[in-house]
Amino acid sequence: MLFNLITLSWIFSLVFYSFKTSLIFSIHTFNSNFISSMVLGNLNINFWFSYILFLIMIGGMLVLFIYMTSIASDEKFKFSKTTSILLLMYIMFNMIIMFKDEFFSYLDTFNSNFLNMNFKEINLSLSKFTNIPNWLIFFILICYLLITLIVVVKIAYKKNGTLRPWLM
Known about the structure:
By secondary structure, this protein is mainly alpha-helical. It has two domains: 123 residues; 41 residues. The protein is built from six helices and no strands. Helix 2 packs antiparallel against helix 3 and helix 4 crosses helix 5. The protein is flat. 1% of the residues are buried. Its EC number is 7.1.1.2. It is found in: Mitochondrion membrane. It is a multi-pass membrane protein.
């Protein structure tokens, strides 16, 4: 399953670069965040860290979507036939390889056994993030987020107005 999620993420990355609209950009970001959260959730004993990561990434994506829609012009969505044919051929090719090849079926079984044996037995928790070896990274992250917040507030000064003032 882990290999299938990574392959699906790779397919989405290859296909969505041919589009230039902000809607496709948002869909691609949402899909890659969702797949990354699923992979991270499979590696941990619980899904809380992946839930938090997913919510933070979606919040950032909403800010990027608002910025892109306020700056970019309204472009029509064009879905070319060659891109759709290439996507279908690529998906079919990968499905044939994964179902027919013994290596991939063995790899999937190996990954599931490996994940069940190693990662599920380790007690992972978020409280270990603030322990002695990691406190410096945690403190630097807090300082970085504080400085970024101050810079964003100073850049978005009220007297400059919005990016598209005719909408107000």
